[in-house]
Amino acid sequence: GIMAVCGTEFFDKVGRLQRKMHENERKRLDLEKRLFETSDQRLSKLKQIKLKSYLRDICEREKKALLRNREIQKDFVRVKAHISALSANTDKLQQMKREFEKEIERRMAAWKNQM
């Protein structure tokens, strides 16, 4: 008898301990799962913050590039207008040169005739 009672108590105690171990293992796995989910959420949040910052930087660089391009376009228009004015002046100067050359030829011919 006493061995049977001790044996029964022992096995009952072992059974309870095994159930408690399984329950604790389930809790541990659940906590581990929640920890990883929280870590994943934190990582996702950090990635989101990093991407937003990167997007802000890109938008700022784009804004600066657009302003710079507008200034370059304005400079180009000014240079083009200046070239057109210089070209018009060059045409006038060439016309005046041709007229002076003709006048010189005419006067040279008249001067030769007087000799």
Overview of this structure, please?
- By secondary structure, the protein is mainly α.
- Helices cover 98% and strands 0% of the residues.
- It has one helix at residues 2-114.
Please write out the topology.
Layout: H1 2-114
Total helices: the number is 1
Q: What's the N-to-C terminus distance?
A: 165 Å
Global geometry:
rod-shaped
Strand content: under 5%
Which spans have pLDDT < 50 for at least 5 consecutive residues? none
| Number of beta strands | 0
Radius of gyration: 49 Å
Order of helices and strands: H
Instruction: Please identify the structural class as seen in this structure.
Output: mainly alpha
Largest sheet: none
Residue-averaged pLDDT: 90
Helix content bin = over 70%
Sum up the structure in keywords.
single chain; 115 residues; mainly alpha
Brief digest:
The chain is 98% helix and 0% strand. The chain is an all-alpha fold. The longest helix has 113 residues, at 2-114.
